Amino acid sequence: MAIATVNPATGQTLKTFEAQGPDEIEQRLARATAAFRDYRTTDLVTRAELLRATADLLEHEQDEIAHTMTTEMGKTLVAARAEAAKCVKALRWYAENGERLLADERPSAADIEDSGARAAYVRYRPLGVVLAVMPWNFPLWQVIRFAAPGLMAGNVGLLKHASNVPQTALYLGDLFYRAGFPEGCFQTLLVGADAIEKILRDPRIAAATLTGSEPAGRSVAAIAGDEVKKTVLELGGSDPYIVMPSADLDRAVRTAVTARVQNNGQSCIAAKRFIVHSDVYEGFVERFTAAMAALTVGDPMLESTDVGPLSTERGRADLEELVNDAVGQGATALCGARRPPHHRVGWFYEPTVLTGITPTMRIHREEAFGPVATLYPADDLDAAVELANDIPFGLSSNVWTDDEAEQRRFIRDLEAGGVYFNGMTASHPAMPFGGVKRSGYGRELSGHGMHEFCNVTTVWYGA
Predict the structure, then answer these.
(1) Residues 145 and 119 in one domain
(2) 414: number of CA atoms within 13 Å, CB side?
(3) Active-site residues: which are they?
(4) Residue 101: domain span
(5) What pLDDT, in 10s, does the model give residues 382-427?
(6) Is residue 128 situated within a structural domain?
(7) What is the pTM of this model?
(8) Are residues 369 and 292 in the same domain?
């Protein structure tokens, strides 16, 4: 894939970039290694001050980078501004909480005595240079949610971003340096996917984190495993959105629409499979379909637009293949299932609602990365859980019920990294984020995410 900015709303190539060659990659690896030697010794107060300076700079440039993101990958300008603001929040959160999260942990006095020690504690030390392989769908947030805890912990980062968001990638590489981080602490690599293996195998790379597709995750995990290097993977998701009879149906419908079409439907944690109890199924379907059909598809730069284009022509084709396969096998499209006839250019696709989904259809088990919702009736809680778990993924889940006994069952039985009641899945700096099964392993955000790339060191003093 060429490294280029191609406007998804028009299909026009705006700017192309040459991939960095071996010499430049080597320079950046050397620079990162040298930076880590010094940066790892900085105190936590200094690191927090640098994160705050980065937050201030990003906040000042919020509109500029929002326009860049919308131009490169098609999210609405409203969503792009919100993404930038979320990044500012995360930077400040780690600046405020990093020292607490990285504080030494001390066992109980009884355990220290039992170990034969005079004193003992656990210290979190940085690992080194971490390679971050990041996706295009949240081109700022996905990077910041790694970089903020990583830099606070004393690591340094090398970013290999998606090839269709090069200007956002370069902005990130420059942002931390302009905010005052020492040269080499965070750098962007403009390289294709074919360069990842050699970089990851370089002994100067200590670990890697990837957010992306399952095939990409398998590849990085295999290489890192061969090199015995730590990885964190956040891969695909096909999250269930379960609605039980006690739910506030109007709120559940309104939230369901947002949960499905956020980021033009291109979010791993977007609700994709809507599993609705039979007692309220017809009412939900009628209201949900009407709300999806009423969404405005159009220019993502306009404040009035609800759904912009998909990020790439290939992405739209993949989504169409899933929908056509389902309809060809008997599924019913209650709305959408086509390209908007009034958009002759750009990679637009109408918000779509499908019913009659069966296990033989690809969309039952594959992730639909676009504004396409599948609906399933469930006769009871057991049927809802079975449907929710009947996929290879386990990123997050959404459940609408006011019944406490039902809530306990869902917490116990849903195979997912998160269970969100009476709302939609959303990441927050204070909450760990990640999945199970083929949605990956490890966690981002919170103290858990910070500690993933720390050398958790036992310090023991003999009596």
Answers:
(1) yes
(2) 26
(3) 234, 268
(4) 4-235+439-462
(5) 999 999 999 999 999 999 999 999 999 999 999 999 999 999 999 9
(6) yes
(7) 0.97
(8) yes
